[in-house]
Design goal:
There is one protein chain. α4 links the parallel β6 and β7. The chain is α/β, with parallel strands linked by helices. The strands form 4 sheets. Strands 5-2-1-6-7-9-10 form a 7-stranded mixed beta sheet, with helices on both faces. Strands 12, 13, 14, 15, 16, 17 and 18 form a 7-stranded mixed beta sheet that branches. Strands 3-4 form a two-stranded antiparallel sheet. The chain is elongated.
């Protein structure tokens, strides 16, 4: 089947690579324009653009996929289907209804429609998530679904481990949908939740939350975005790994307490152990290493 692929992120790259190895190899990849990245803010292509070049697939990077030039470029590829995964731009008519469309969404729709379904599933403590192949509509992630499969969320999953499995599942389900053209069915009217984009406040380890909620937040944002604890001097200490401590020391909510070589953040109902941290401008390190280099007034208790 002749296809055109719309995608941008690293997640989208994994799906593109699977699609390119199938009988539905795209003749055109459409992705977002190059944007400033990194400390130098130099222009850099999105991951899907780099992947398309490596795969030898024609590439288009319009400011808007709905612009006349982009529509003409897609039409010239004569697709029998348009495949979408983490494109990051609004798709409108006439493109929306011009071709059969297969959109990859990493959740069990209608749960977790929106921009951050993997992160929100971990943060909420869901026992499972999955992948849905759906037909996009004008309403966000509300279109009918043709294929859906669940994936368990393990107790130690972070974004990196769970997204890795969902990438593989997404590619397999997309190819399966293109191979078999299963019927689309409307989503259930109940059970709708929205996975809002992760903002700065979502990264903060809010001491008003309890330790289990904060531990899930750390895992949900590792390794790609990162959670942080606010220190008394206003510095943000990145937190890469955390753990629930059975015998945590008493700690005032929002304060850091050292017990030997262990570090704890006081929170609602107890304390969260910070296992691996990342000071501003430095590499990630164990809490023990960070404590050895911080001989200041940090509260210390007997371990």
């Amino acid at each position: 089947m002749r296809t055109v692929y719309l995608g941008t992120s690293r997640f989208a790259v994994a799906v593109l690579e699977r699609l390119a190895g199938s009988g539905h190899r795209p003749s055109l990849v459409v992705t977002r324009p190059d944007r400033p990245r990194g400390r130098g803010r130099s222009l850099a292509p999105p991951p899907a653009a780099e992947a398309a070049r490596e795969l030898g697939i024609d590439l288009a990077q319009p400011e808007s996929v709905n612009a006349p030039g982009a529509l003409e470029r897609i039409a010239a590829a004569e697709p029998e289907a348009v495949c979408i995964c983490a494109y990051g731009g609004l798709i409108k008519d006439p493109l929306l209804s011009a071709y059969p469309m297969f959109n990859v969404h990493p959740s069990l729709l209608p749960r977790w429609r929106g921009a951050a379904p993997v992160e929100r599933a971990i943060e909420a403590g869901d026992a499972k998530t999955g992948v849905s192949i759906m037909r996009p509509t004008a309403e966000l992630d509300a279109g009918p679904v043709c294929v859906q499969r669940a994936e368990p969320i393990e107790a130690d999953d972070d974004y990196g481990s769970l997204a890795g499995r969902l990438k593989r599942l997404s590619g397999e389900l997309l190819v399966e949908a293109l191979d078999g053209s299963p019927p689309f069915r409307e989503q259930p009217a109940g059970g709708i939740t929205y996975a809002e984009k992760v903002g700065a406040q979502d990264r903060r380890l809010d001491p008003a939350l309890d330790a289990p909620a904060l531990e899930r937040r750390v895992r949900a944002l590792t390794p790609h975005i990162g959670a942080f604890a606010e220190l008394e001097d206003g510095v943000r200490l990145g937190v890469r790994r955390a753990a629930l401590a059975g015998a945590a020391p008493a700690a005032e909510a929002g304060t850091l307490v050292a017990a030997g070589e262990r570090l704890f953040l006081g929170c609602a109902g107890g304390a969260l152990e910070l296992v691996e941290v990342q000071p501003p401008g430095k590499r990630a390190m164990t809490a023990a290493d960070w404590l050895r280099g911080r001989p200041d007034g940090l509260a210390r208790v007997e371990p």
